[in-house]
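Slide 14.
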Amino acid sequence: MLRSLLRRCFKLLLAAAVTSVVLVVVMRWVPPLGSALMLERKVESWLDGKPIDLQRQWRPWEQLPDDLKIAVIAAEDQKFAEHWGFDLAAIRSALAHNERGGSLRGASTLSQQVAKNLFLWSGRSWLRKGLEVWFTGLIELCWSKQRILEVYLNTVEWGDGVFGAEAAARAHFGKGAPYLSKQQAALLAAVLPNPRAWNPARPSPYVTRRANWIRQQMWQLGGSHYLNQLQPQWSLGWTDKP
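Slide 15: predicted structure.
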């Protein structure tokens, strides 16, 4: 009976692993229909008795503004073009900071955030962290950096029920994502640590200072020239275009 149970568990794990690989490979080219975080927010709203309408409209890479791309990198993951999904130096720094006490500091890369938002649930547990490592590795292996950032910008949360750059631009600034100014892009990036509490259209003094810092970092990174490092090269021998 024990051997039979172990075989069944192994088969379930193998099936789950294969399914996850297929999903990640398909999403290399096909826009995700939604994300686990979107589903979680919808369920939360039902349980609270305050249902929300989710706002999201996919924008392909070419229609996403360079200022927003580089602003998000400057704010969230300045080593995005260099690492393979995990910023080990940032992880060590965050662990040292958290051991000293005070507010918890995270060290998630954009790749990790995509893995978490697309496939996993919120919260802290070793199981979720292990699955995050698995999906992050798959994403880095199967997708180009450009694709990772494209999916991130189309799925990240930017307010209650607001997901992705297009919905965020319309909800907060009344315009489409391609028409965002540099300052508006910096403000959107500035609120990412707490998008449900901070409003980029009515920024607090802290958010304004953070946006100004992000603009300085955008310039130091080389502006849109930094994005040349994200051009698809190879990943499992595939290219993004036939």
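Speaker note: The chain has one domain: 34-230.
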